[in-house]
Automatic annotation (TrEMBL):
Keyword Metal-binding: yes
Organism: Flavimobilis soli
Domain of life: Bacteria
UniProt KW Metal-binding keyword: yes
SUPFAM superfamilies with a match to the protein in the record: Globin-like
Cofactor(s) required for function per UniProt: heme
Alphabetic keyword roster: Heme, Iron, Metal-binding, Transport
Similarity comment text for this entry: Belongs to the truncated hemoglobin family. Group II subfamily.
Name by which UniProt lists this protein: Hemoglobin
Gene3D superfamilies listed in its UniProt record: Globins
Length: 127
């Protein structure tokens, strides 16, 4: 059986773990985004994001098995996701995706998702 998912094509778990690790390295020192992660350490958020992205891109369905439907907007509603937070998230995710050096086609597809996902999370225009 051949797995032709995006997940498999870009290198599977290892690639997604590297992307998420790079993302949270940026978040750790970001004064806008870091307060959105209540855990003392970013480990639990890292694990959740890896599971989510793997599932979204055709990998294991561990996220839904453990946490149910992603409900991204609902899960982010307690936090102020304004255009500044969106832009910071895009900056860190873009750098993280680029850091793993995907093929140009895969990188473009993932960065398109990053942009769309970030814009859909805005829940306020207050500073």
């Amino acid at each position: 059986m051949t797995d032709d998912s995006f997940y498999a094509a870009v290198g599977g778990h290892e690639t997604f773990q590297r992307i998420v690790d790079a993302f949270y390295e940026g978040v750790a020192n970001d004064d806008v985004l870091r307060p959105m992660y209540p855990e003392e350490d970013l480990g639990p958020a890292n694990e959740r994001m890896v599971m989510f992205l793997e599932q979204y891109w055709g990998g294991p369905t561990t996220y839904s098995e453990r946490r149910g439907h992603p409900r991204l907007r609902a899960r982010h509603m307690p936090y102020k996701v304004n255009p500044l937070a969106r832009d910071r998230w895009i900056t860190h995710m873009t750098a993280a995706v680029r850091s793993v050096r995907l093929s140009p086609l895969h990188e473009a597809e993932m960065l398109d998702y990053v942009e769309r996902a970030a814009h859909s999370m805005i829940n306020t225009f207050d500073d």
